[in-house]
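Q&A log
Question type: sequence-to-structure
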Amino acid sequence: MKKTNLSDYDAAAIPDGSSFRIGVIAAEWNPEVTDAMLHGAVDTLKEHGVHEKNILVRRVPGTYELSSAADMMLEQTTVDAVICIGCVIQGETRHFEFICQAVSQGLTNVALKHERPVIFSVLTTNDMQQALDRAGGRHGNKGVEGAVTALKMIAYQNSL
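Response status: OK
Response body:
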């Protein structure tokens, strides 16, 4: 059977986050998508034990700004991981390609520089409906997936 909700996961396999401090940075652009993803991420972190006071939420103007914001957050705070939430929708120009490439490479570079998990919860879709389907719609919530990934990656790093 084909999996339609991409955010389904085994809750028993998720580490307890009660000792974790996690940053969540969400783009303001496409707020109907990024707000839903942000809520999904924060709710999932809380469900797995992360205390509300240990969830540092910040907003940035757009998806492009996620890389520099994650770098600043890791430089200036004690978070164990950063979840970066954004949404880039294909338009009629090549702008989409440049933004997607810059953000994916930028977030990778930030993670390697700081040796802490930086989670790519960025939707890159052909249209708004695809984005809504992945932001709490019929295909799950990419913010939930980002929270689960952050918890697993922090636990992985702590196990080394």
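Response note: The beta strands are 22-27, 55-60, 81-89, 118-125, 135-137, 140-141.
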